[in-house]
Amino acid sequence: MSSILTNTSSMVALQTLKGINSSLSKTQAEISTGKSVGSAKDNAAVWAISKVMEADVKGFKGISDSLNLGESSVAVARQATETVTDLLTEIKGKVVAAQEQNVDRGKIQTDIDALTEQIKSVVNAAQFNGLNLLKGTEDMNILSSLDRAGDGSVTAANITVGRKDLTTSAGVYGGGTSLAPNATVAGGASAVASTGNSAVVTFAGTAADYSAANATLTVAGVDLNYTGQAGHTESNAASFFSAAINALGLEGITASASSGALTVTSTRAFDSAKVTVGALAGNAAGSQITSLNGSAVTQASGDIANRAEQIDFSTSAAVKEGDGYKVTIGSGSYNYVAGKGETMEDVARGLKTAIDSAGLTGITTKVVQDASTGQWSLKVDNSGASKSFSSTGNEGGTASGGLFGLDAIDVTTNAGADAALDNIETMINSSIAAAASFGSAQGRIEIQSEFVGKLSDALKTGIGTLVDADMEEASARLQALQVQQQLGVQSLSIANQAPQNILSLFR
């Protein structure tokens, strides 16, 4: 049936042409924008994912800038610490040269002072955009990543770079909670004096017959042999060993005899002296060495303790930033305040530096560790008049600089030159540790920066896969749609001519 009121063919052709034009417009939009999903109406799910990923890409661009800034700051600190290490090594060479007696220590001290000032200059200048990692103890956090969880939550990740204070500041001793139990004077000594320690070897009997006796006494590694003679008594044996020991000329070792007792005295500051005794042999009735330091013996040995007094540090207590420890010698107190990440070894060495820097006459120090327990101790010796001696500690201070004591190095005296040798080694180790730490941090930042760059590229590629148009496909589709559009127009034209054909029926 034909109708002049309803042209079904025209409606079908028109709807087909509209669909073709819509597809053609979409294809042209893809070609002009390069995106198959340009807005949420194109594909809401894919568009939402792409926008989240685009936001992450923008975030990683900011992270890359943060890493570049952090890497530059750490690189400056690393270079500075390496320079400080080289300068400290030069100072060590000067200190070693000052150990000789026939050198001009005054000129050497001038060189050391100049190198010290140069180190201070390097530390003060080691900043990037105002940030100096060689001062203070507060860590620096560098934004390194944005970690997105499955539920969509985002967490910022950081690379933490610890500051390494290489200043020469003495710190500020605090008045917080007492730390006295962590640093105790061995044996409860209350004074440090030049008095030596002794071992007493007692011989038996009163006027006992020593005519056929013989014995061996070993002092500080030297064997001494006694052979009795007619009429000898225990006093002769004691006197023989006393004279023999004194004749050896052992540093810090002397002996005396009285009423059949031999007293061996050591004034060695930091080294013990071993005494070994053996039983008398022979036909002398009742003749024997009866005791060493009051203990009955047939054969025994013992150590004469070193003269120095000793502060023992806890093997279990942790050291926190701001923990201060103090040693009092006579009327003066000398303290060290620990920084972040330090140990009891650092405290012991810091106190040694503090005492050495004071230049006390007759006072020498040494840091030792017990091989069996791992306990660190500070030994303090006094070759002069007796001085009171004590130790304590408190929380809540401001940390001393990592090169504390550097500007107090004085090699113009024998004692100062000796003390400087140990202390400069501690400072070199601190500087080397700081340089190594910054080097490791810089390497990690470089790796993370490279990873972030690759991650950003991968995210961009993923976004492109989701929303970018396939230009080859779009081009082919455009040509096909253009042909369909032409055919659609012709079809509509033909359909619109159908009512005109009805007129021929009325002619």
Automatic annotation (TrEMBL):
<dbReference type="Pfam" id="PF00700">
    <property type="entry name" value="Flagellin_C"/>
</dbReference>
<keyword id="KW-0966">Cell projection</keyword>
<feature type="domain" description="Flagellin N-terminal">
    <location>
        <begin position="4"/>
        <end position="137"/>
    </location>
</feature>
<dbReference type="Pfam" id="PF00669">
    <property type="entry name" value="Flagellin_N"/>
</dbReference>
<comment type="similarity">
    <text>Belongs to the bacterial flagellin family.</text>
</comment>
<keyword id="KW-0964">Secreted</keyword>
<comment type="function">
    <text>Flagellin is the subunit protein which polymerizes to form the filaments of bacterial flagella.</text>
</comment>
<dbReference type="InterPro" id="IPR046358">
    <property type="entry name" value="Flagellin_C"/>
</dbReference>
<protein>
    <recommendedName>
        <fullName>Flagellin</fullName>
    </recommendedName>
</protein>
<feature type="domain" description="Flagellin C-terminal">
    <location>
        <begin position="421"/>
        <end position="506"/>
    </location>
</feature>
<keyword id="KW-0975">Bacterial flagellum</keyword>
<keyword id="KW-0969">Cilium</keyword>
<dbReference type="InterPro" id="IPR001029">
    <property type="entry name" value="Flagellin_N"/>
</dbReference>
<dbReference type="InterPro" id="IPR001492">
    <property type="entry name" value="Flagellin"/>
</dbReference>
<keyword id="KW-0282">Flagellum</keyword>
